[in-house]
Amino acid sequence: MQPIHNIYNQLATPQKVVITMHQKPDGDAMGSTLGLYHFLKQIGHTVTVISPTNWAHFLNWMPDVATVIDYENKQAIADEIIAAADIIFCLDFNTLSRTKRMEPVLSNTNATLVLIDHHREPQQNTFTFGISDTGKSSTCEMVYDFIMASPWQQLINNDIAQCLYAGVMTDTGSFRFPSTTASVHKMVAHLKELGLQHSTIHEALFDNGTENRLRFIGNVLSNRMQVFYEYNTALIAIPQADLIKFDIKTGDTEGLVNYPLSIEGIKFASIIIDRGEERKCSFRSKGAFDVNTFARTYFNGGGHYNAAGGATTDTLEKAVADFITAMKANREQLSTYTF
Ligand code: 5GP
Ligand code: MN
User: Fold this and answer.
1) Number of domains in the chain
2) Which of 205, 280, 281, 327 yields a CA-CA distance of 20 to 30 A from 252?
3) Start and end of every DDH domain (predicted)?
4) Residues of the chain with pLDDT under 50
5) What is the pLDDT of residue 7?
6) Which residues span the domain enclosing 157?
C-alpha cells in the first residue's frame, strides 16, 4: 500500500469516485464518507457515496445524506456506478468482508482502491493507496488530516465540518476515550471556526429517539443484564422477541454496551443481540483488557483494543454459555482491575 498522499496527483484531474464504508454505518462511517464527498465534489470530481446496508435514522440530518445509495436496496444502480469508477475510497473498515454483499464487487474492481481507516490489521494486497492508523480517534479525524495536507485545504467548509464532527464525537464517546488527543481538540477548534454548531449535532444524534427505545433500554437494564463481579465483567443478552416487542430499528441498540461500564469495578462489558439471521456481539473494555483479541478468538470478529465486535450463528443460549466459558478462561486478566 502506497502512502495516501500519493493519490493527490490523480485527484488533480476530474475522476469518477465512489466512497464506501462498513455495513450498518455509524456516525464515524457516515460522517467520514460524507465529509470526504463534500470535499471531493468541490474539486470537480463525480462522487457517489454507497453504503452496504441501511443506517440509523439519527444520521439523516447530515448534509446530502439523501444522495447516499443503500446497496441492498439499489444494487443494480450501485453496481453500474462501481463498474464505471476510477477510484473507490474505503472508509472506516479494514477488510472488504465488512462491506457484506459488496465484497465480491470490490474484490473484482479495476478501480484504484484507497483505504482510510483506524482499525487493526488492514487486509493485505487489497488497497493501492491508503493509511491505516490505530492511533487515530476516528476515520473522520483522518479525513480531516487528508484534506488539510492536500493542495485543496482551503475548500474545507461547514458542511464538511458537520459531517466530520459527528464521527470524531461519536468515536471518542463525546471526547472521553483515551484516543482523544490534543490533535482532536485542535481539529474541533478549527471546525468551530468554520461555523460548526456542535450542540445541534449532539441533539440530532442523541436526543432523537422514540419512547419505545427508552422503555426498551429500561427493560434491558432491568431484565437482560448479568454482572459477574469476580470477573469485573457484565453481559447483556437480548432475545429477538424484545426487538420486535419494542419495535427496535437499526441504530437503536447503539451505545447500549457501554452502560455496564458505569458500574464501579466493571472493566469488561459485552452485549449479544439476537438479530434473527445471526447473534451480533459487541465488546467494550476499560484499561488493560484486549477485546480485539477476545472478539477474534471467540466470536469471529475484531476491532480495537477497547472496542470490538463479532457474530455467531449459534443460538443466543449457546452464545451466552460460550461467552461465560471464554470469560472464565480469561480470569487472570479480568480479575485484576488496573488502569
Ligand atoms: P460495534 O460494537 O460498535 O459494532 O463495533 C466496535 C468495533 O468493532 C468497531 O470498530 C467495528 O468496526 C468492530 N467490529 C464490530 N463488529 C465486527 C465484526 O463482526 N468483525 C470485525 N472484524 N470487526 C467488528
Ligand atoms: Mn470509526
Assistant:
1) 2
2) 327
3) 16-168
4) none
5) 98
6) 2-206
